[in-house]
Each structure stands twice: as C-alpha cells, then as structure tokens.
Amino acid sequence: xxxxxxxxxxxxxxxxxxxxxxxxxxxxxxxxxxxxxxxxxxxxxxxxxxxxxxxxxxxxxxxxxxxxxxxxxxxxxxxxxxxxxxxxxxxxxxxxxxxxxxxxxxxxxxxxxxxxxxxxxxxxxxxxxxxxxxxxxxxxxxxxxxxxxxxxxxxxxxxxxxxxxxxxxxxxxxxxxxxxxxxxxxxxxxxxxxxxxxxxxxxxxxxxxxxxxxxxxxxxxxxxxxxxxxxxxxxxxxxxxxxxxxxxxxxxxxxxxxxxxxxxxxxxxxxxxxxxxxxxxxxxxxxxxxxxxxxxxxxxxxxxxxxxxxxxxxxxxxxxxxxxxxxxxxxxxxxxxxxxxxxxxxxxxxxxxxxxxxxxxxxxxxxxxxxxxxxxxxxxxxxxxxxxxxxxxxxxxxxxxxxxxxxxxxxxxxxxxxxxxxxxxxxxxxxxxxxxxxxxxxxxxxxxxxxx
Length: 452
Description:
It is found in: Membrane. GO terms for molecular function: nitrate transmembrane transporter activity. The protein is mainly α. It has helices at residues 7-28, 31-42, 46-74, 76-94, 100-110, 116-125, 130-141, 146-161, 163-184, 191-196, 202-205, 212-243, 247-258, 260-263, 265-275, 277-295, 319-347, 352-381, 386-416, 439-451, and strands spanning 300-306, 309-315. Strands 1-2 form a two-stranded antiparallel sheet. α1 runs antiparallel to α6 (116-125), α2 (31-42) packs across α12 and α6 packs antiparallel against α7. The longest helix has 32 residues, at 212-243. The protein is globular, with a radius of gyration of 22 Å.
C-alpha cells in the first residue's frame, strides 16, 4: 500500500465487512438450533447429530483456501458479495430436504458461509496500516458473535415458525446483505497493486506453507477457533442433556459463551498490537487449560470409609459454575483468535489470503471434526464431559508446542548475541520491522522455524 486510505474509507470497509461476516457466521452455525428439531423429527443419534452440525463447518473450512486465493487475486468486494448470494440460495434450498442424506448435502452448501472469514480478513487488512491491523482484524473477527445471534434468536423463530421458515428468513437476510455489499463496498487499496503484479501460480502462492511456523499457527487456531465453533454448536444440546433445560433457555445460556468468545476478539486485537501476540497466546492457553480441566470433571460420588462408618459425598458442576467457566473460556479464546491472525499480515503481507486461508481452514476443520467427535465420545463413553476432556488435551498440546518453539527461538538469539527477532509475537509493535537485522540470527532463525 503506497498511501494510507482516509479514515472514513477505512471505517466504511471495516463496518461493512464486520456486519456481513456477522450474518455469515449466524448462518454457518444455524444447525446448532434447527439441528435439534431435525434430530427429533428424524430420530438421530448423537453421532448423526454431530455430523449434521459439523458438515457446514467442513465446507466453510475447505473453501477458505480457495476463497483466500481468489480474494488475493480479484479483491474482496466481488468475492464477498457473490459468496453471500450463493450461500443464501443454498440455505433456502435446504428447506426442501426431507431425509438425513439430503440434509447432509444441503449442509454442505450452507457451509459456504464460513468461507467469508478469510475473504473479510484479506479485504479488511488491505485498508489498514500494519500497526493497526491487529485492532482492525479483531473488530472484524468479532463477527463471530453471529453464533450468539443464532443461539439467542433462532430458538424463538424455531418455536414460532418451525425450522423451515427459520432457514428461509436467514436466507432472505443474507441475500439482502450480499446485494448491499456489492453496491456499497469499495474496491480495496491493493487492487491496483494486484493488477500490476505478475500473476503467480498456485504453487508460488502456496510457497509460505513450507514453513513449519504456518502449521504451528494452524494448531493454535484449531483450538481457539475450531473448538469455539464446535462448542458453540454443541452447547445447546449439552445443556439440554446435562441440565434438562428447554431449547430457548439452552440457547440463551449458550449465547453467554459465544458473545464473549466473539466480542472480546476486539480487545484481543488491541492487546496484540500493544503487548505482542505471544503474551496474549500464553494468557489464552494457560486459562483454557485450567477451564477445560475443571469442565472435564464428570459428576462423581465418593465413599470414604471412616472410623465410624462410610462418609458419602458428591462432586458435580452446578449450572451457575458451568456458565461462569464457559464465559471465562470464551473470553480467553476470543483473545487468542485475534492474536493468531495478528501474525499473518506481519509475516506474509502479500500472502494474507493464502496463508490466512490455510490457517483458517485448519481451524475450521477443527470445527468440523470436534462436534462429530463429541457425539462419538458421547455414544462410546456415555460421559457428557468427554467433550471437555478432548479440548483439554488439544490446548495442552498447543501450549507445549508454542512454549518449545519460543524458547528454541530465544536460544538462537542468545547464541547470535542479538535481541532482534523475526518473531513479532515476541516483540512490541515498534519492533515489528527492526531496522538493524543480524544476518547470522536471521539465517539461524529461518532454519530453526523450518524444523521446529
């Protein structure tokens, strides 16, 4: 970007893309509510329900890779608008499905809404200077609150009109937004640069993926985003099964998780700009390890053989404590989502769509695999809390790998006797683009990232 766009243009682009992404995310998670009614009508098992909830996440995840490349090439305005119109048509056609197999096919089309994330990331990042991209992308990412819109609003539509009418209302709103985006959004500032640049092959665009660093970021996002989506889908069913709530109450309580896991992404972007993304990731993973460990403990009855007889007591998670812990978990996951995507425009400014698409795809695949796995674990173990046991294992592994990689990078710096680093998550914003590079440290660091 040769010059910074006017603030009015930046705010216009950010506002349109954030609102559009909010609606797309609401559509993407629609099966968290209508899936429960469909499950009752078709008498589905937990595994079948988990697959139905997860299928849109699969499409949304895989499509991010290609949509990111198309956005790098053609710009976000047209890709975003056409994507919303296509998804709206798929949501409307879903209402004609009458069998489980037809539902799964329809869910694949609904999942295109999830691809909107990487389109919006590339489009939004193009309007802002690097020092403000973390905050801007945090605001845009707050569109995850669309899942709270669905958890809160869809149950009332479902009870009043049925799942078919609910889906049709969603399709109509998304189609209107798609047309509005095409009419109101402006071409991003990097469009001219893309037109003048030599078109790269698919292999060249994917070249950054040879770096292990990208896949490390992808694991982070597998948890902070993939597990967020999975839990947003699974929570209403979990609350109905564990605490015996009705669907409207379960939806509203689930929103208490999805709202902080979405809106506080803005704070995560600002904190990443201010203190560095590494610190934010440490906060996220440590807090998530604690929360998922506590949530994974199933109700247990203990018998202590005392001197004068047996002493019986039970440990179980009350509903208020469950709400508090999921709120805290959602808060820190929201910070982590922003911190992961703070890295990408800094490392790969001309490959935001491609690299971000892969990271987003892996994160989204987590949103596909995990709800399905939650259902399978329920059917196999018969323990509702098994979903949190799995999440605990994932976040503990991500924390261990991140800490190992960072300490390895620090040892390279110490050996080179330099404080400079190519890891912006270790630094303050003013050190994102250090002027005095140390060639020995640079070479060693690149080699380290390839292997660690």
